[in-house]
Amino acid sequence: MILPKGRLTMRPEMLRTRQRVGLARARLAGVFACALLTGCASLPEVLQPVSSLFWNMVNKARNPGPELLDNPQKVAADFECANRPQPWVLLETHQLLPARLQANDEINEHLVYVLCPARGQAGVRGTLTRRVLSRGTVIWSDVTRDYELQPGRWSVNLFLTIPGKAEAGSYEFEVAFETNKVIFRDSKSFTVVRR
After folding, report:
1. Is residue 157 pLDDT above 50, yes or no?
2. Which site among 21, 86, 90, 118 is 20 to 30 Å from 135 CA-CA?
3. Where are the domains of the chain?
4. Sign of the CA dihedral running 23, 25, 31, 37
5. Distance, CA of 110 to CA of 97 (rounded, Å)
6. Can you tell me the distance from the alpha carbon of 58 to that of 62, in angstroms, rounded to the nearest whole number?
7. Which distant-in-sequence residues (6+ apart) come within 8 Å of 124 by Cβ?
8. Dihedrals φ, ψ of 134, to 5°?
C-alpha cells in the first residue's frame, strides 16, 4: 500500500476504535437532526432547548405575510400550466414550526402555494380560513374574506404566540382556501408541553 507523504498507517485496533467513535457521533448527529429538522416529540428533555433555539432562529428569519418565490413565467414552465385546467392551485407545503412548544412560545405557520391563473385573470379571490382546535373545539380562528392568491409560487407566514394559560396537550391547526369550491385544505398537529 502506498501512502501519501506524512501519513502513518493505522493499526486495526485503532481503526476499530475510530469506527466506534464515528458511529457514536453519527447517532448523536441523528438525534440533533431529529431535533432540528422535525421538532421530534420523543427528543430527550435535555435537548429540547436546542430544538427551541433553532426554531426561534428559523422563525426570526421569516417575515409575516406573503413573499414571492418564483414568478408566474417560471411556474408556467415548471408546472406546465398550459396543459392544466385553469385556474390551477397547488398547496405545495404546509408546516408548523416548531411542532412542539411551550406556553408563551411563538409558532410559525408556513405555507407555500403555486397558482397558474386563468387567462386574463390576475389571481384567485376567496376566503382564507385558519383555525386552532383543541379536542375538536375551535379555540382560535382567523377568517380573511376576499383574500387573493397571486400567480406564481408564494410563501405565506403567520406567527402566533401560544397563550401563557394554554393547557399542555395536542392541538390541530387547520388552513383552508375556498372560492365557490374548496381550493385547498390541510391540517397539522402541534403539541404544547409544560415548562
Report:
1. yes
2. 90
3. 64-193
4. negative
5. 8
6. 7
7. 87, 89, 115, 117, 148, 149, 179, 183
8. -125, 120
As beta bridge partners, residue 161 has 106
In the beta sheet, which residues pair with residue 107?
Answer: 160
Q: Binning pLDDT at 50, 70 and 90, where does residue 156 land?
A: very high
66-97: pLDDT as tens digits: 999 999 999 999 999 999 999 999 999 999 99
Per the CB < 8 A criterion, the answer to whether 128 and 177 are in contact is yes
Please, are residues 155 and 69 in contact by the beta-carbon 8 Å criterion? yes
User: Which CATH architecture does the domain made up of 64-193 adopt?
Assistant: Sandwich (2.60)
Q: Phi/psi at 28 (nearest 5 deg)?
A: -65, -40
Please report the sign of the dihedral spanned by the C-alpha atoms of residue 157, residue 161, residue 166, residue 167: positive
pLDDT band per the 50, 70, 90 thresholds, residue 121: confident
Predicted model pTM: 0.69
